[in-house]
Fold:
Amino acid sequence: MKLTTMILKAIPAIAALLLAVPLSASAEGNATLPGGASSVRETYDDWMVSCATSQEKDKPATKICTIAQEQADAQSRRRVLLVQLLPGKGSAKATLVLPFGLDIQKGVTLQLDDGKAGAAQRFLTCYEIGCVVELTLDSATLASYNKGKQLKINVTAASTDGTGKEASFAVSLKGFQTAYNRAVELAK
Structure:
C-alpha cells in the first residue's frame, strides 16, 4: 500500500481520537473562524495550528483547534512522529503517534530539556500509521513547556530478548507558546 494511501486512511482514525475528547475543549455556539472560514491552518515556528468547524445535523456548530508538530525521516520522507495537543480548560489532551518497532510494554517517557524524565506513559493502541499514546497535560506541565527549548520523547526499540536500545525523539518547543495561545484564542 502506498504511503499516501496509508496516511489518507489514517486521518479519520486521528480525527476520531480528537473528537472523542469532551466538547469542553471546543467552542459551541460561536463556531466561526476569522473571515468566516470553515478551517484555518497557521504556522508558528515549529508548530502548526489547525482549526476546523463542524456542523452535525440538529446540533449546534462546533470548532476544534489543535496544535501539532510532525517529523519525517529525511531519506524516506515517512512520518516518524506526530505530537498533537487539544487545548482545554487549564489542561490539554495530547496525542502522540510513534512508529512501529517500539517496545510497547515499556511505553514512553517525556523529558523537558535535560530534566528528569517523567513516569512511563502507556501506548493506547496501534493503527496503520503507527502506535498511539494519549495523555493529559496539566497547567503546570504546559507552563514548563512554554519555558523549555526541547521535549524529549524517550522510547525503547522492541527486541525478542528484551535488550532493545533506548532512543529519543527531540521535539522543538520553538513557537509552542504562541501556537498554543493562538489555538486557545481561535477556539473561543
